[in-house]
Task: inverse folding
């Protein structure tokens, strides 16, 4: 072999040593690459965690919240109509309001649609929820396909499903039953609320206030509440309707059913409409609420967001006696200070009390549970208290000097934030007598 040819071969061999690493070197390079990728992902995760912890959360259609956060030089992330943080395709919270609105498919404009308290159909709505929360469960801590852990299964086919952006208990077996247990018993004054959709089963859903029996529709002789029945929703005694109204909205949408009981005086509502008002009927009370649902595979029944509370008091008497009183009947849009129309009865009760007692001065205090950012909860509680104050001034002509507003966020809990009932109890508006 000529010298020049040999030299060429040796050079190529040397170059191949650099171009083709050994198997060990290749594995090392892969580890370094993977480590680099993990470091990038870890840093992104740390940044996301820091943003979730430190940023102010504003509803994407609440420009006032965003503007206030920017004035305070605080980072902002945005939530959708369900209160969930809006993220990009990689799971990172979006800090640009227009981009967040586009990602969520909503308008970034302030949400002023819909009636305000006291307007439209809500003007004659008089449901006031009880102030002591006894049971609340929206099934958010349960898994789809399971039966809710905090309910007692009695019979039938029921499972949790995600439907219309919420977790609901679906019944497809005729006569399926479950119970909400109340160890202290169903009080004389109580309120019951739950979401329901019934696409048209003939027997609907039945609720009684004591232990269930097989086939409540045929065998239960006492008074009970019926929802979605072909003869209407309302109050029944044995197999005859006493006071019912056919409201077909639950056949195509999820509605909220409500019961307000004061001894033997019972009212039943579907959304803003009162469907029953019976001044005197004996309804036996036990240690539970038993639900019986007559769903089928073709026409299932969906139930969720169950809330039971003890309630019923004279607002002024309690306020004067204790110096302060908590209300559970003022509702706001998620992560917003916009007052919902369901708040009408409680706001009317407060406004009327102030009209009838012109010397009364009160402070309106906003409180939250411990979920979310501390600073954001404080800011939100203040804005909500201010919104209530402004409503009372505008709607009832109450002198501004008689009303103060402040918020305390999560700093003054009255319930255990580790339980759903405690968190619900902590989300409140309190009225305090001023000297």
Result:
């Amino acid at each position: 072999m000529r010298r020049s040819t040999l030299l060429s071969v040796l050079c190529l061999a040397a170059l191949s040593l650099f171009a083709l690493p050994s198997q060990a070197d290749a594995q090392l390079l892969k580890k370094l690459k993977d480590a680099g990728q993990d470091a990038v992902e870890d840093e992104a995760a740390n940044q996301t965690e820091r943003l979730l912890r430190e940023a102010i959360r504003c509803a994407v259609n609440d420009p006032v919240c965003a503007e206030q956060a920017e004035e305070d030089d605080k980072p902002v992330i945005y939530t959708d109509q369900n209160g969930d943080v809006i993220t990009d395709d990689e799971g990172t919270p979006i800090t640009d309001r227009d981009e967040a609105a586009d990602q969520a498919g909503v308008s970034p404009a302030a949400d002023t649609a819909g009636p305000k308290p006291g307007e439209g159909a809500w003007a004659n709505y008089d449901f006031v929820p009880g102030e002591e929360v006894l049971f609340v469960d929206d099934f958010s801590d349960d898994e789809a396909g399971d039966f809710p852990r905090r309910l007692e299964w009695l019979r039938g086919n029921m499972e949790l499903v995600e439907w219309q952006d919420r977790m609901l208990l679906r019944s497809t077996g005729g006569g399926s039953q479950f119970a909400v247990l109340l160890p202290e018993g169903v009080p004389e004054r109580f309120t019951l609320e739950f979401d329901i959709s019934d696409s048209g089963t003939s027997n609907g859903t039945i609720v009684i206030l004591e232990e269930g029996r097989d086939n409540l529709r045929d065998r239960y002789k006492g008074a009970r509440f019926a929802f979605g029945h072909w003869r209407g929703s309302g109050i029944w005694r044995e197999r005859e309707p006493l006071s019912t109204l056919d409201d077909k909205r639950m056949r195509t949408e999820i509605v909220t059913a409500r019961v307000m009981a004061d001894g033997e005086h019972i009212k039943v509502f579907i959304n803003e409409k009162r469907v029953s008002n019976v001044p005197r009927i004996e309804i036996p009370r036990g240690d539970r609420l038993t639900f019986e649902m007559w769903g089928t595979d073709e026409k299932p029944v969906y139930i969720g967001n169950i809330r039971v509370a003890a309630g019923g008091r004279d607002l002024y008497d309690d306020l004067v006696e204790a110096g302060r009183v908590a209300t559970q009947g003022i509702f706001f849009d998620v992560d917003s200070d916009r007052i919902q129309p369901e708040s009408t009865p409680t706001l009317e009760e407060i406004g009327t009390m102030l009209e009838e007692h012109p010397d009364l001065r009160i402070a309106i205090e906003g409180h939250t549970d411990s979920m979310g950012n501390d600073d954001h909860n404080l800011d939100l509680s203040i804005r909500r208290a201010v919104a209530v104050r402004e409503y009372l001034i505008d709607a009832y002509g109450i002198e501004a000097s008689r009303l103060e507003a402040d918020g305390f966020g999560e700093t003054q809990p009255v319930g255990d934030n580790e339980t759903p009932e405690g968190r619900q109890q902590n989300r409140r508006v309190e009225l305090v007598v001023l000297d």
